[in-house]
Amino acid sequence: MTPRPGARQRLLDAAEELFASGGFAGTPVDAVLARAGVAPATLYAHFGSKTGLQAAALAARLRRWDDVWSAAVAAAPDDRARLLAVFDALDAFGTGGTPSRWCAFLDAAAGAPADDGTAVAALAEDTALLRGRLRELAAPVAGEDAAELAEHLLVVVTGALAMALRTDPARATAQGRATAAALVDRWR
Amino acid sequence: MTPRPGARQRLLDAAEELFASGGFAGTPVDAVLARAGVAPATLYAHFGSKTGLQAAALAARLRRWDDVWSAAVAAAPDDRARLLAVFDALDAFGTGGTPSRWCAFLDAAAGAPADDGTAVAALAEDTALLRGRLRELAAPVAGEDAAELAEHLLVVVTGALAMALRTDPARATAQGRATAAALVDRWR
DNA sequence: GTCTATAGTAGGATAGAC
DNA sequence: GTCTATCCTACTATAGAC
Protein backbone atom coordinates (compact mmCIF):
# COMPACT_ATOMS: atom_id res chain seq x y z
CA MET A 1 0.00 0.00 0.00
CA THR A 2 1.47 3.32 -1.03
CA PRO A 3 1.94 5.91 1.71
CA ARG A 4 -0.77 8.10 0.24
CA PRO A 5 -3.43 6.78 -2.14
CA GLY A 6 -4.40 8.75 -5.21
CA ALA A 7 -7.09 11.37 -5.17
CA ARG A 8 -9.66 9.01 -6.63
CA GLN A 9 -9.24 6.45 -3.88
CA ARG A 10 -9.17 9.09 -1.18
CA LEU A 11 -12.45 10.46 -2.52
CA LEU A 12 -14.01 7.00 -2.45
CA ASP A 13 -12.83 6.35 1.10
CA ALA A 14 -14.04 9.71 2.33
CA ALA A 15 -17.39 9.32 0.57
CA GLU A 16 -18.02 5.86 1.96
CA GLU A 17 -17.29 6.94 5.51
CA LEU A 18 -19.20 10.21 5.45
CA PHE A 19 -22.19 8.95 3.50
CA ALA A 20 -22.49 5.96 5.80
CA SER A 21 -22.41 8.01 8.99
CA GLY A 22 -24.17 11.21 8.01
CA GLY A 23 -26.31 10.01 5.14
CA PHE A 24 -25.99 10.94 1.50
CA ALA A 25 -28.35 13.91 1.48
CA GLY A 26 -26.95 15.20 4.76
CA THR A 27 -23.35 15.18 3.64
CA PRO A 28 -22.28 18.21 1.58
CA VAL A 29 -19.77 17.75 -1.20
CA ASP A 30 -17.50 20.16 0.63
CA ALA A 31 -17.23 17.79 3.56
CA VAL A 32 -16.08 14.96 1.32
CA LEU A 33 -13.57 17.24 -0.38
CA ALA A 34 -12.18 18.45 2.92
CA ARG A 35 -11.76 14.94 4.30
CA ALA A 36 -10.16 13.67 1.10
CA GLY A 37 -7.97 16.74 0.78
CA VAL A 38 -9.01 17.21 -2.81
CA ALA A 39 -10.23 20.11 -4.93
CA PRO A 40 -13.82 20.25 -6.25
CA ALA A 41 -12.83 20.00 -9.90
CA THR A 42 -11.01 16.72 -9.24
CA LEU A 43 -14.16 15.14 -7.92
CA TYR A 44 -16.17 16.16 -10.95
CA ALA A 45 -13.41 15.07 -13.33
CA HIS A 46 -13.54 11.57 -11.89
CA PHE A 47 -17.18 11.02 -11.06
CA GLY A 48 -19.17 13.68 -12.92
CA SER A 49 -21.49 14.48 -10.05
CA LYS A 50 -22.20 13.84 -6.41
CA THR A 51 -24.52 11.04 -7.45
CA GLY A 52 -21.76 9.51 -9.57
CA LEU A 53 -19.48 9.50 -6.56
CA GLN A 54 -22.22 7.88 -4.52
CA ALA A 55 -22.64 5.13 -7.11
CA ALA A 56 -18.93 4.37 -7.11
CA ALA A 57 -18.79 4.43 -3.31
CA LEU A 58 -21.76 2.08 -3.03
CA ALA A 59 -20.21 -0.33 -5.49
CA ALA A 60 -17.03 -0.39 -3.42
CA ARG A 61 -19.05 -0.84 -0.27
CA LEU A 62 -20.95 -3.76 -1.73
CA ARG A 63 -17.70 -5.54 -2.56
CA ARG A 64 -16.42 -4.93 0.94
CA TRP A 65 -19.66 -6.19 2.46
CA ASP A 66 -19.45 -9.28 0.29
CA ASP A 67 -15.94 -9.98 1.59
CA VAL A 68 -16.83 -9.42 5.23
CA TRP A 69 -19.85 -11.66 4.99
CA SER A 70 -17.88 -14.40 3.22
CA ALA A 71 -15.27 -14.31 5.95
CA ALA A 72 -17.93 -14.58 8.65
CA VAL A 73 -19.48 -17.56 6.91
CA ALA A 74 -16.10 -19.24 6.58
CA ALA A 75 -15.44 -18.78 10.28
CA ALA A 76 -18.71 -20.36 11.37
CA PRO A 77 -18.58 -23.95 12.67
CA ASP A 78 -21.78 -25.50 11.31
CA ASP A 79 -24.71 -25.00 8.94
CA ARG A 80 -26.87 -23.16 11.41
CA ALA A 81 -24.04 -20.80 12.38
CA ARG A 82 -23.21 -20.18 8.74
CA LEU A 83 -26.80 -19.12 8.08
CA LEU A 84 -26.79 -16.77 11.06
CA ALA A 85 -23.28 -15.48 10.28
CA VAL A 86 -24.83 -12.56 8.44
CA PHE A 87 -25.34 -10.91 11.83
CA ASP A 88 -21.72 -11.44 12.83
CA ALA A 89 -20.83 -9.84 9.51
CA LEU A 90 -23.07 -6.89 10.25
CA ASP A 91 -21.31 -6.34 13.56
CA ALA A 92 -17.89 -6.60 11.94
CA PHE A 93 -18.92 -4.40 9.05
CA GLY A 94 -20.24 -1.69 11.32
CA THR A 95 -17.21 -1.48 13.56
CA GLY A 96 -14.85 -1.64 10.60
CA GLY A 97 -15.11 2.04 9.79
CA THR A 98 -17.13 4.98 10.99
CA PRO A 99 -20.09 3.84 13.04
CA SER A 100 -23.12 4.07 10.76
CA ARG A 101 -26.56 4.47 12.21
CA TRP A 102 -28.05 3.04 9.13
CA CYS A 103 -27.62 0.96 5.99
CA ALA A 104 -26.06 2.98 3.19
CA PHE A 105 -28.02 1.17 0.49
CA LEU A 106 -31.38 1.70 2.12
CA ASP A 107 -30.37 5.28 2.84
CA ALA A 108 -29.52 5.81 -0.79
CA ALA A 109 -32.86 4.49 -1.98
CA ALA A 110 -34.80 6.34 0.70
CA GLY A 111 -33.19 9.66 -0.12
CA ALA A 112 -33.25 9.36 -3.88
CA PRO A 113 -35.69 11.60 -5.77
CA ALA A 114 -37.68 8.55 -6.95
CA ASP A 115 -36.57 8.97 -10.55
CA ASP A 116 -32.91 8.41 -9.74
CA GLY A 117 -32.09 4.94 -11.00
CA THR A 118 -28.59 4.94 -9.51
CA ALA A 119 -29.53 4.42 -5.92
CA VAL A 120 -32.33 2.03 -6.74
CA ALA A 121 -29.96 -0.10 -8.81
CA ALA A 122 -27.42 -0.21 -5.99
CA LEU A 123 -30.07 -1.31 -3.53
CA ALA A 124 -31.26 -3.94 -5.99
CA GLU A 125 -27.75 -5.37 -6.17
CA ASP A 126 -27.53 -5.45 -2.41
CA THR A 127 -30.90 -7.17 -2.23
CA ALA A 128 -29.88 -9.73 -4.82
CA LEU A 129 -26.68 -10.53 -2.95
CA LEU A 130 -28.56 -10.96 0.32
CA ARG A 131 -31.34 -13.07 -1.14
CA GLY A 132 -29.03 -15.26 -3.19
CA ARG A 133 -26.58 -16.10 -0.47
CA LEU A 134 -29.26 -16.53 2.17
CA ARG A 135 -30.87 -19.13 -0.09
CA GLU A 136 -27.61 -21.00 -0.51
CA LEU A 137 -26.94 -20.98 3.19
CA ALA A 138 -30.52 -21.93 4.03
CA ALA A 139 -30.45 -25.02 1.85
CA PRO A 140 -28.58 -27.29 4.29
CA VAL A 141 -30.89 -26.18 7.10
CA ALA A 142 -34.31 -26.01 5.49
CA GLY A 143 -33.96 -28.20 2.42
CA GLU A 144 -36.82 -27.59 0.01
CA ASP A 145 -38.04 -24.71 2.13
CA ALA A 146 -34.77 -22.84 1.68
CA ALA A 147 -36.31 -20.10 -0.47
CA GLU A 148 -39.08 -19.56 2.03
CA LEU A 149 -36.70 -19.38 4.97
CA ALA A 150 -34.42 -17.06 3.02
CA GLU A 151 -37.30 -14.62 2.45
CA HIS A 152 -38.08 -14.64 6.16
CA LEU A 153 -34.45 -13.94 6.96
CA LEU A 154 -34.28 -11.18 4.37
CA VAL A 155 -37.08 -9.40 6.24
CA VAL A 156 -35.29 -9.90 9.56
CA VAL A 157 -31.92 -8.68 8.27
CA THR A 158 -33.57 -5.64 6.72
CA GLY A 159 -35.43 -5.13 9.96
CA ALA A 160 -32.21 -5.27 11.94
CA LEU A 161 -30.68 -2.62 9.69
CA ALA A 162 -33.68 -0.35 10.13
CA MET A 163 -33.87 -1.06 13.87
CA ALA A 164 -30.50 0.69 14.10
CA LEU A 165 -32.52 3.89 13.77
CA ARG A 166 -34.86 3.00 16.61
CA THR A 167 -32.16 1.84 18.98
CA ASP A 168 -28.39 1.57 18.95
CA PRO A 169 -26.86 -0.59 16.22
CA ALA A 170 -25.40 -3.20 18.57
CA ARG A 171 -28.81 -3.88 20.10
CA ALA A 172 -30.35 -3.94 16.65
CA THR A 173 -28.10 -6.70 15.35
CA ALA A 174 -28.39 -8.64 18.61
CA GLN A 175 -32.17 -8.60 18.42
CA GLY A 176 -32.06 -9.45 14.72
CA ARG A 177 -29.92 -12.49 15.46
CA ALA A 178 -32.34 -13.63 18.16
CA THR A 179 -35.34 -13.25 15.87
CA ALA A 180 -33.56 -15.05 13.03
CA ALA A 181 -32.57 -17.85 15.38
CA ALA A 182 -36.19 -18.28 16.45
CA LEU A 183 -37.19 -18.61 12.82
CA VAL A 184 -34.39 -20.98 11.88
CA ASP A 185 -35.28 -23.24 14.78
CA ARG A 186 -38.67 -23.86 13.27
CA TRP A 187 -36.85 -25.95 10.69
CA ARG A 188 -34.78 -27.93 13.18
CA MET B 1 -66.42 19.12 7.80
CA THR B 2 -66.12 22.63 6.44
CA PRO B 3 -65.82 23.02 2.66
CA ARG B 4 -62.26 24.29 2.91
CA PRO B 5 -60.13 23.74 5.99
CA GLY B 6 -58.02 26.54 7.40
CA ALA B 7 -54.52 27.24 6.26
CA ARG B 8 -53.02 25.42 9.22
CA GLN B 9 -54.83 22.19 8.50
CA ARG B 10 -54.14 22.42 4.78
CA LEU B 11 -50.45 22.82 5.55
CA LEU B 12 -50.51 19.76 7.79
CA ASP B 13 -52.31 17.67 5.17
CA ALA B 14 -49.97 18.77 2.41
CA ALA B 15 -46.91 18.17 4.56
CA GLU B 16 -47.99 14.70 5.60
CA GLU B 17 -48.65 13.63 2.03
CA LEU B 18 -45.56 15.13 0.46
CA PHE B 19 -43.14 14.20 3.23
CA ALA B 20 -44.44 10.64 3.19
CA SER B 21 -44.08 10.19 -0.54
CA GLY B 22 -41.02 12.24 -1.38
CA GLY B 23 -39.22 12.25 1.94
CA PHE B 24 -38.62 15.19 4.25
CA ALA B 25 -35.26 16.26 2.89
CA GLY B 26 -36.39 15.80 -0.69
CA THR B 27 -39.48 17.94 -0.36
CA PRO B 28 -38.89 21.69 -0.65
CA VAL B 29 -41.00 24.04 1.39
CA ASP B 30 -42.27 25.55 -1.85
CA ALA B 31 -43.89 22.28 -2.81
CA VAL B 32 -45.80 22.14 0.47
CA LEU B 33 -46.86 25.75 0.07
CA ALA B 34 -48.03 25.21 -3.51
CA ARG B 35 -50.10 22.15 -2.59
CA ALA B 36 -51.62 23.84 0.42
CA GLY B 37 -52.26 27.06 -1.46
CA VAL B 38 -50.63 29.08 1.28
CA ALA B 39 -48.00 31.81 1.44
CA PRO B 40 -44.57 31.22 3.00
CA ALA B 41 -45.11 33.62 5.85
CA THR B 42 -48.21 31.73 6.96
CA LEU B 43 -46.23 28.55 7.37
CA TYR B 44 -43.60 30.24 9.49
CA ALA B 45 -46.23 32.05 11.55
CA HIS B 46 -47.77 28.72 12.50
CA PHE B 47 -44.84 26.35 12.77
CA GLY B 48 -41.71 28.47 13.00
CA SER B 49 -39.65 26.35 10.63
CA LYS B 50 -39.77 23.46 8.23
CA THR B 51 -38.73 21.18 11.07
CA GLY B 52 -41.56 22.52 13.20
CA LEU B 53 -44.00 21.66 10.46
CA GLN B 54 -42.50 18.20 10.24
CA ALA B 55 -42.92 17.66 13.95
CA ALA B 56 -46.58 18.67 13.81
CA ALA B 57 -47.19 16.52 10.75
CA LEU B 58 -45.54 13.51 12.37
CA ALA B 59 -47.63 13.95 15.51
CA ALA B 60 -50.79 14.00 13.41
CA ARG B 61 -49.60 10.98 11.48
CA LEU B 62 -48.92 9.05 14.67
CA ARG B 63 -52.47 9.68 15.88
CA ARG B 64 -53.87 8.56 12.55
CA TRP B 65 -51.72 5.44 12.60
CA ASP B 66 -52.89 4.68 16.12
CA ASP B 67 -56.51 4.92 14.98
CA VAL B 68 -56.02 2.78 11.89
CA TRP B 69 -54.23 0.12 13.89
CA SER B 70 -56.89 0.12 16.61
CA ALA B 71 -59.58 -0.34 13.99
CA ALA B 72 -57.72 -3.24 12.41
CA VAL B 73 -57.34 -4.91 15.80
CA ALA B 74 -61.03 -4.43 16.55
CA ALA B 75 -61.96 -6.03 13.24
CA ALA B 76 -59.87 -9.16 13.81
CA PRO B 77 -61.70 -12.31 14.89
CA ASP B 78 -59.31 -13.94 17.36
CA ASP B 79 -56.13 -13.44 19.38
CA ARG B 80 -53.78 -14.55 16.65
CA ALA B 81 -55.45 -12.31 14.06
CA ARG B 82 -55.39 -9.37 16.45
CA LEU B 83 -51.66 -9.78 16.89
CA LEU B 84 -51.10 -9.93 13.13
CA ALA B 85 -53.57 -7.10 12.46
CA VAL B 86 -50.68 -4.66 12.42
CA PHE B 87 -50.03 -5.74 8.83
CA ASP B 88 -53.64 -5.17 7.82
CA ALA B 89 -53.26 -1.74 9.36
CA LEU B 90 -50.10 -1.10 7.35
CA ASP B 91 -51.94 -1.94 4.14
CA ALA B 92 -54.85 0.28 5.07
CA PHE B 93 -52.58 3.09 6.20
CA GLY B 94 -50.59 3.04 3.01
CA THR B 95 -53.52 3.14 0.64
CA GLY B 96 -55.24 5.80 2.70
CA GLY B 97 -53.29 8.66 1.19
CA THR B 98 -50.44 9.13 -1.18
CA PRO B 99 -48.59 5.86 -1.66
CA SER B 100 -45.46 6.11 0.46
CA ARG B 101 -42.42 4.04 -0.38
CA TRP B 102 -41.27 4.30 3.13
CA CYS B 103 -42.08 4.91 6.78
CA ALA B 104 -42.22 8.60 7.57
CA PHE B 105 -40.84 8.15 11.08
CA LEU B 106 -37.85 6.13 9.97
CA ASP B 107 -37.34 8.58 7.13
CA ALA B 108 -37.36 11.47 9.57
CA ALA B 109 -34.75 9.86 11.78
CA ALA B 110 -32.62 8.73 8.86
CA GLY B 111 -32.57 12.17 7.29
CA ALA B 112 -32.08 14.17 10.45
CA PRO B 113 -28.66 15.77 11.00
CA ALA B 114 -28.05 13.54 14.04
CA ASP B 115 -28.33 16.45 16.46
CA ASP B 116 -31.96 17.13 15.61
CA GLY B 117 -33.97 15.86 18.53
CA THR B 118 -37.32 16.44 16.85
CA ALA B 119 -37.20 13.53 14.44
CA VAL B 120 -35.58 11.21 16.94
CA ALA B 121 -38.30 11.98 19.48
CA ALA B 122 -41.03 11.29 16.92
CA LEU B 123 -39.47 7.96 16.03
CA ALA B 124 -39.15 7.11 19.70
CA GLU B 125 -42.89 7.71 20.18
CA ASP B 126 -43.65 5.51 17.21
CA THR B 127 -41.39 2.81 18.58
CA ALA B 128 -43.00 3.01 22.00
CA LEU B 129 -46.47 2.71 20.50
CA LEU B 130 -45.46 -0.32 18.45
CA ARG B 131 -43.67 -2.08 21.28
CA GLY B 132 -46.34 -1.37 23.85
CA ARG B 133 -49.31 -2.54 21.83
CA LEU B 134 -47.47 -5.53 20.41
CA ARG B 135 -46.80 -6.65 23.96
CA GLU B 136 -50.45 -6.30 24.93
CA LEU B 137 -51.59 -8.21 21.88
CA ALA B 138 -48.92 -10.87 22.31
CA ALA B 139 -49.96 -11.66 25.87
CA PRO B 140 -52.95 -13.89 25.01
CA VAL B 141 -50.83 -15.77 22.47
CA ALA B 142 -47.47 -16.13 24.14
CA GLY B 143 -48.27 -15.66 27.82
CA GLU B 144 -45.10 -15.04 29.80
CA ASP B 145 -43.09 -14.82 26.59
CA ALA B 146 -45.16 -11.89 25.34
CA ALA B 147 -42.31 -9.41 25.66
CA GLU B 148 -39.96 -11.69 23.77
CA LEU B 149 -42.45 -12.31 20.98
CA ALA B 150 -43.21 -8.59 20.80
CA GLU B 151 -39.52 -7.81 20.25
CA HIS B 152 -39.38 -10.34 17.45
CA LEU B 153 -42.44 -8.79 15.84
CA LEU B 154 -41.03 -5.30 16.22
CA VAL B 155 -38.07 -6.38 14.12
CA VAL B 156 -40.37 -7.92 11.53
CA VAL B 157 -42.67 -4.89 11.32
CA THR B 158 -39.68 -2.59 10.99
CA GLY B 159 -38.28 -4.96 8.40
CA ALA B 160 -41.52 -4.86 6.42
CA LEU B 161 -41.41 -1.07 6.42
CA ALA B 162 -37.85 -1.06 5.15
CA MET B 163 -38.54 -3.84 2.66
CA ALA B 164 -40.85 -1.36 0.94
CA LEU B 165 -37.65 0.19 -0.39
CA ARG B 166 -36.36 -3.10 -1.77
CA THR B 167 -39.62 -4.16 -3.37
CA ASP B 168 -43.10 -2.73 -3.74
CA PRO B 169 -44.97 -1.94 -0.52
CA ALA B 170 -47.71 -4.51 -1.06
CA ARG B 171 -45.19 -7.33 -1.35
CA ALA B 172 -43.32 -5.97 1.64
CA THR B 173 -46.31 -6.13 3.97
CA ALA B 174 -47.35 -9.52 2.60
CA GLN B 175 -43.92 -10.98 3.29
CA GLY B 176 -43.85 -9.32 6.70
CA ARG B 177 -47.15 -10.93 7.58
CA ALA B 178 -45.87 -14.33 6.49
CA THR B 179 -42.70 -13.98 8.54
CA ALA B 180 -44.63 -12.79 11.56
CA ALA B 181 -47.04 -15.68 11.24
CA ALA B 182 -44.15 -18.14 11.17
CA LEU B 183 -42.85 -16.63 14.40
CA VAL B 184 -46.22 -16.52 16.12
CA ASP B 185 -46.84 -20.16 15.31
CA ARG B 186 -43.83 -21.12 17.38
CA TRP B 187 -45.99 -20.27 20.39
CA ARG B 188 -49.03 -22.22 19.27
C1' DG C 1 -53.67 35.74 9.82
C1' DT C 2 -52.60 36.18 5.39
C1' DC C 3 -50.45 38.02 1.41
C1' DT C 4 -46.34 39.90 -1.98
C1' DA C 5 -41.81 40.48 -2.41
C1' DT C 6 -37.27 39.76 -1.11
C1' DA C 7 -33.23 38.75 1.68
C1' DG C 8 -29.55 35.51 2.93
C1' DT C 9 -27.19 31.37 2.37
C1' DA C 10 -25.60 26.94 1.31
C1' DG C 11 -24.65 23.58 -1.88
C1' DG C 12 -23.62 21.59 -6.47
C1' DA C 13 -21.09 22.38 -10.38
C1' DT C 14 -17.77 24.86 -13.76
C1' DA C 15 -13.89 27.97 -16.02
C1' DG C 16 -9.38 28.45 -16.79
C1' DA C 17 -4.45 28.29 -15.17
C1' DC C 18 -0.68 25.15 -14.09
C1' DG D 1 -5.00 15.48 -13.16
C1' DT D 2 -5.03 18.88 -10.03
C1' DC D 3 -5.62 23.42 -8.18
C1' DT D 4 -7.88 28.37 -7.21
C1' DA D 5 -11.58 31.01 -7.73
C1' DT D 6 -16.15 31.69 -8.94
C1' DC D 7 -20.90 31.10 -10.76
C1' DC D 8 -25.66 29.71 -10.39
C1' DT D 9 -29.44 27.66 -8.69
C1' DA D 10 -32.58 26.30 -5.13
C1' DC D 11 -33.82 26.59 -0.70
C1' DT D 12 -35.19 28.44 3.99
C1' DA D 13 -36.71 32.26 6.23
C1' DT D 14 -38.11 37.27 6.97
C1' DA D 15 -39.86 42.24 6.22
C1' DG D 16 -43.62 44.96 5.68
C1' DA D 17 -48.35 45.94 3.70
C1' DC D 18 -53.27 44.63 4.05
List its traits.
Homeodomain-like_sf (chains A, B), mainly alpha, homodimer, Transcriptional regulator, TetR family (chains A, B), 188 residues, DNA-binding, transcription cis-regulatory region binding (chains A, B), Tetracycline Repressor, domain 2
Structural write-up:
Two copies of one chain form a homodimer. With about 190 residues, chain A is an all-alpha fold. Helix content of chain A is about 80%, strand content about 0%. The termini of chain A are far apart. Chain A contains nine helices and no strands. Chain A has a domain at about 60-185: Tetracycline Repressor, domain 2, CATH 1.10.357. Chain A is elongated and about 55 Å long. The interface of A and B includes residues 106 and 158 of A. The structure holds a DNA duplex (18 and 18 nucleotides). Chains A, B: One of its GO terms (molecular function) is transcription cis-regulatory region binding. Chains A, B: This is Transcriptional regulator, TetR family. Chains A, B: Keywords: DNA-binding.
Largest sheet data of chain A: none
Number of strands of chain A: 0
Low-confidence stretches of chain A: none
Average pLDDT figure of chain A: 94
Radius of gyration of chain A: 18 Å
How would you classify the quaternary structure? homodimer
Strand content of chain A: under 5%
Q: Number of helical segments of chain A?
A: 9
Secondary-structure-derived class of chain A = mainly alpha
CATH homologous superfamily designation of the domain at 60-187 in chain A:
Tetracycline Repressor, domain 2
Q: In the CATH scheme, what's the topology name of the domain at 60-187 in chain A?
A: Tetracycline Repressor, domain 2
CATH architecture of the domain at 60-187 in chain A: Orthogonal Bundle
The arrangement of helices and strands of chain A along the chain is: HHHHHHHHH
Largest interface: A-B, 39 and 40 residues
Distance between the termini of chain A: 47 Å
The share of residues in helices of chain A is over 70%
